[in-house]
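Aggregate trends can hide what the representation actually does to any particular protein. The sequence in question and its structure tokens are set out directly beneath this paragraph.
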Amino acid sequence: MLTVHHLSKSFNLTTLFEDVTFSVSAGDRAALIGANGSGKTTLLRIIASEELPSQGTMTLPNDVRIGYLPQGFELDPDQTLGEIIGRSIGSIDSLEDELTALAIALSEHPDDANLQERFDRMLRRIESADADRAATITNALGLDDIDPNLPTGVLSGGQKTRLALALVLLNEPDLLLLDEPTNHLDIAMLEWLENWLATFSGAVLFVSHDRTFIDRTATKVLALDNGITEYSGNYTDYLAQWQLEREKQMQAYLDQVAEVKRIKKDVARVRETARSHENKSTSVRKGGERMAQSGFKDFVRGKAKATAKVAKAREAKLNRYLDAEDRVEKPARSWQMNVEFGEEVRIGRSVLHLHDLTVGYDQPLLHIPEHYVSAGERIILTGANGSGKTTLLKVIAGRLLPLNGTATLGSSVHLGYMAQEQELLDPEKSPVEMLRDIGFGSDTDIRNYLHNYLFKDQEPLKPTALLSYGQRARLQLAILVAQGCNFLLLDEPINHLDIPSREMFEQALLQFNGTTLAVVHDRYFIKRFATEVWWVENGGVRREIQ
């Protein structure tokens, strides 16, 4: 269905990716993975005709209907939910008129395959315009619970993602391009999307850092690292294949190192022999006196030259070996986040006491009668979008007053809060400036510190507004760690992190001996990290010890 051939993209003198070649067929669920900044979003934009490549081509059949869900989906904040969905469904009358015209043309040219394809496509569009079908999709995505007269500008991140996804699915695409569709979706919605994609008859190319979602959805993985490497199967299959390749490459590299060492030792030995012969050719000792021995000298000097020639030939062989095209490179260390929280975080036993707490805005969203949080706990807060998870974190952080009750922090708690919408970052300031504001140290110290969070070259000097979503998430974490926080409130902290960075983030938090309360929907992360899960449901919290 889609063929990408030798595609490259450059910005000024910087090459984002080059020689990207792959294909996606009907029924494929291709997961596009790679580090942040490797060009995944740009590649999807090129396929969606939102951007032009620098080189290369891509081929799609005529009239293929593309459904594209961008990562930063923007809605008209003044339009209502009902207006946007209604416009997407379209007018059934106009579609039926077009179908009638195609039917007439097809009766006159029954062997025209293009007309037949257009007729079939129009039938599918009419089906997608059917109010009952639209209701099925919007209901499944939980949009029927939202007032249709509500302006989209006041929707939560999860509601916006679900609306954007509904608009894409309502158009009955043949090829789905999904850029991080799992962001802000709760577990119930993730499972619905997984089931929907399993029955979708078209092709799907999606970017996701949700390893469980990839495991349950993908039929193949496309790893983007300058070019594309294709792996069959899901994420677990990809990881096993990738690790096996790394092990083989490392063994070949070690064998090569051993061979180079052997050849160098051999060259050194032959050169030493040549020097020894040369020394013997200049003088000998006889009867306690040094005297020239012309015949012997010529013989030994000739032997020295021959030996030196052998050494030179072997050195040339070594150089050819090192310059050979099939020379094995040492496996590169993945550019992953290296977070150090410090060896010890001081915190008292009592971290948080929730008493008769009710949170919400005009109406109560969530009530917790009584609960204590102790030092060292790693709590995951999860549940449906709009159930009050973010609101609870804001109340604990003191950014919102509760409707009733109290949320009391322990006396030794130094709270760190990572906001979901990243609104706590100053868009005008650079990472260096923000760390300088909290007195972290010299600019050199700051840049060295930020290097651990994957900031390289001139990135620490850029205004935050110009940073990617993933870079902003890493910056928020870096600031919290620099401030010495011992109780972290993290609102969907890994949404915009790539897979390697998620894994390093998990490892870092597992080493953190403070307390963590995090809103997360990544099931892979929950399984690895949580000591306790708080399931938000029916206006309350159900606790589950892991």
The CA atoms of residues 184 and 297 lie 86 Å apart. The domain at 350-545 is CATH 3.40.50.300 (Rossmann fold). The radius of gyration is 32 Å.
